[in-house]
Amino acid sequence: MQLRYLKTVLPPGDGLQKVTSLCWAANNSKMAAVTTDKVVYLFDDNGERKDKFKTKPADASGSANYIVRAMAFSPDSTKLAIAQSDNIVFIYRLGESWTDKKSICNKFLQSSPITCMIWPRGRDDVVFGLADGKVKLGMLKTGKAYTLYGHPDSSYVVSLAASPNGQAVVCGHIDGAIYRFTFPQEEGGAGLSSSQLVQHSSVPYALGWGASIAAAGNDNRVVFYDTNGRELQVFDYSNDEAVREFTSCSFNPSGDTAAFGSYNRFYIYTLNATRKAWEQVTVRVVQNFYAVTALSWKPDGSKLCVGGMTGSVDVYDACVRRHKYKGKFEFTYVSKSAVIVKELKSGKRIVLKSVYGYEIDRINIYKDRYLIARTTETLLMGDLESCHLSEIPWQGDGNEKFIFDNESVCIVYWAGEMTLVAYGRNEVLGVCRTEHVHPTLLSVMAIQKMVSDGRSPPENRTVLARLAYLIDPQYGV
């Protein structure tokens, strides 16, 4: 992993003005930063400041003696949740464009100060921790908050992290305990399950969940755990006088790279896929930055934002490698399983990512629009115009023939079989055998529309598909 300093999007203040939270919108369009001055600064994907607004106290007629503990964007990138120490979580509707009017659409008032908060992927509710040791679920549909669990000794909640798929959450407490709880698979299914995952060796102020669960605190040890709480690896800096306590943690979107913030420095760890072990690959020392209080990766994995004690927010370019393709496109490998494909002329970008975490070996682009990428186990297909991606299990030999005459469906012909895949779906539409695969001898129709299961944001799905092809020179179906 290579890190290159790009710019400072928020300059340091005259004194201590801690950056308390950084977060990116899931669609890569916005980044939010907030300091102890209670003002939320909004930036575009290039780090240009576009807007700002001052947060509100829980009691409009009362004191403004509070700080923003955490922020998180909704999965659809149109809302921003703001957790405050004056016992409240506000949900702001920001809209899709910079000119949309901001409004508060939900609020969750509690009897104890909010200490941390996350918005799990694919969910329409926020999870937040309280000073009294409880972890609660704020449901936007009902406007009510429900207790997920409470620490038996009411130990202060210091950190929260969601699993990459958003189906589970880990929570760190001031007594060192890390708990895990899982959401039911289906609405109306079995209730939440929770249990203590592990007793960490210090207060887990820095907690994250990617390919592993990682925690660190004031004993200067970074520990990686599996999902059952088994200790996988330890990086011990307790004998290094230059290292102080760890204060923040963030995994990249692929989950195979973790950033940990300390004093005047931050560390980068990467999962070695061959050895199946974590390795420290970079330590970035920034003098006079003081404690790294907030970290946030851009959802496409191309940038890391770093916030400090003086109010400064720096942006770093992050990539494994970068190269050009036929002078028209640029491939930026942000991890072994994720590549940003950028058209140099138009600036259009798409993130080509293996949903299974496999390493991407080769990428080809056809008709300056359609992407074909290979891993050892799968085949990835994408459309630069619609930004729809698909990945299917595949054991071909590299001699496949691809037909791109239909804008909704990719046709793959190999070993006498024709496989149809709709862009945006990680499954095969259909398979048939034929020796006649010329584009003029095929007809494919696919009807797509937005479909929602009621729990997740609507997504584009193929609801009807028809194929006409020749069985032999005389008969067709």
Automatic annotation (TrEMBL):
A Pfam family annotated for this UniProt entry: WD40
Transcription keyword on record: no
Highest taxon of the lineage: Eukaryota
TM region(s), chain numbering: none
GO cellular component: axoneme; ciliary basal body; intraciliary transport particle B
A single BP term in Gene Ontology: intraciliary transport
Localization per Swiss-Prot or TrEMBL: Cell projection, Cilium
Homology family: Belongs to the IFT172 family.
Protein name per its UniProtKB record: WD_REPEATS_REGION domain-containing protein
